[in-house]
Amino acid sequence: MDIKDVENLAELARLELTAEEKKSLLKDFDSILAYVDSIKNAKLGDVEPEYNMQNVWREDKLEPREFSKELLTGQFPDSQEGFLKVKKIL
Amino acid sequence: MIDLKNLTIEKAHRGFKNGEYTCRELTEAYLGIIRDKNKELNAYLEVFDDVLTQAAEADKRFKAGKAELLTGIPIAIKDNILFQGHTASAGSKILENYTASYDAFVIKKLKEAGAIILGRTNMDEFAMGSSTQTSAYGVSRNPYDLSRVPGGSSGGSAIAVAANLSLVSLGTETCGSVREPAAFCGLVGLKPTYGAVSRNGIIAMGNSLDQVSPFGKNVRDTEIIFNFLSKYDSEDSTSVPGERRRLNFLENEGLTSGSPKTIGVPWHLFEKGMDPEVIDNFKQSVEKFKKAGYEIKEIELPFSKYSLEAYYIIMPAEVSTNLARFDGIRYGYSQQGSSEAKNLKDVYMKSRGKGFGQEARRRILLGTYVLSHGYYDAYYNKAIKVREKIKAEIIEAFKKVDLIATPTAPMPAFKLGEKLDDPVAMYLCDIFSAPANLSGVPSIALPSGKTKNDLPLSIQFMAPHFCENALFAVGKRFEAIRESE
Fold first, then answer.
1. Which residue of chain B has the CA closest to A41?
2. Pick from A12, A28, A50: which is nearest to B423 by CB?
């Protein structure tokens, strides 16, 4: 991994980083990846994950929920006439 | 004066019932200690302002004869558990001003019972850490030695119980976040079976691993809280319905109805990297069980030695997905008003860049990496296969033994500041925690003595899925063995 990889990942993950932070993250990744790399030595043979599947979806029925609308809209960082306001996309 | 040090849930309940003290008086006793000690320990980030109202309600229930066992029982909650109308910040700056808009399942249950929810406790940011040093709200201190960490990530909840700032508390576990601080603070900590306690209303870190987990001063208190919270919840798709719990139960009937008799020890997992006092204490504990009539068997768990590696691939992958929702748009810390943020993407980049701390950033990026094209097979896919193998070998081991024992953590509580610059050294604190979280089996940490510097030591047991009863049985037996010494 090099500093370009860190920048690319940060862009994908939408994280603004300072030059200092990028350097320190690169150093951390080197040691963490060196550690987790040993998983490549695990000799697995054929593994078929055994999924115990069952339907966990609820029926599409209207049910009351205890959400408070005021608590949700009151926390918008920016709003106009009760609607969430965001900046332009481009 | 109420003897808080030796107070248990059942004693407090009798105290209320017999009129020895009211719920309000007990709550005030805890509030007094919080006032004296919290500044130094930093266990609580906030004591809720409605605590005395809750206590008054509880007293009314006792007067009306409608009290149950948890009515009036003071409990502290980790800062990642939603309590409607109260701040829940998950130890992070990005949620510093977030107010919970609904109650977590566990909070709903506690409210129904009339428990007193005292406040929210400090934790590693988004539960990422083993020492409560990554919180955006400062470090917390171990009550046994203020220069040392309490463990983490549920450090605040552990301190609250260990220093009598609460009777019991809730933490959450993704990999050792309750058992390791229980070990460092001399408490009992239970990581329930995955799917036993609803995760609805818990700020998620790793969904395939997270579980709400109680702390207590003794096994019985932990058992009471677990039995109370272990209920099916249709709002959590990973909550296991009752009939499937019963099936698991029946498969292990001998173990769940009687008491465990054989203990397996995977000695090969702790050949190196151990603090000598921890391993000596563990060997002594095993001897005590042998003398008490338990059969000790050596077992091999060849894939479990890759547990922590698998965990540090699977967990960041889930973290990078989970934490994508914190974007400065709908709630929490936001750079929406910043003049430097020209468009939507700038708001995302700046809010997340400034809102997340160092460890959260590390894990988000690491997760993005292991899930990215070209690395997915080598890391994520390999890790989930290793996880299957670990689960299979643990289930297989339970055909030969009733329980599996290991030390809870490889070292006692370490100094504040230690391991902060070396993420891998920090991750290794949870090396013995990972198998239970990856395989979903329940595990309990039990106090097992002290080091020569008077720091707590701990032994941990794992049991088959939904066999928490076997853990409580062995735990109570161990308490009795240690009391008779």
1. B306
2. A28
**What single string gives the DSSP state of each residue in B95-112?**
GTT-B-SS--HHHHHHHH
Its sign, for the CA torsion B34, B188, B432, B128, is: negative
Task: Give me the mean pLDDT over the B137-165 stretch.
Answer: 98
Furthest C-alpha separation in chain A: 60
Cβ under 8 Å to B: A residues 25-84: 25, 28-29, 31-32, 35-40, 42, 44, 47, 49-50, 56-58, 65-68, 71-72, 74-78, 84
**Bridging pattern class, strands B456-462 and B403-407:** antiparallel
Q: What share of chain B is helix, strand, coil (3-state, %, to 5)?
A: 45, 15, 40
Is the ipTM, as predicted for this complex, more than 0.90? yes
Alpha helices in chain A (DSSP H): 3-12, 19-36, 69-73
Give the contacts of A59 (CB within 8 A, at least 6 positions apart): none
Active site residue B177: yes
Compute the average pLDDT of residues B370-380. Answer: 91
Q: Which pLDDT score, from 0 to 100, does residue A56 have?
A: 81
Nearest to B91 by CA among B180, B210, B174, B203: B203
CA distance B176 to B168: 18
Q: What value does the mean pLDDT take over residues B300-322? A: 97
pTM for the full model?
A: 0.96
**Partner-chain contact A44 B310, CB within 8 Å:** no
Q: Enter the DSSP assignment of B142.
A: B
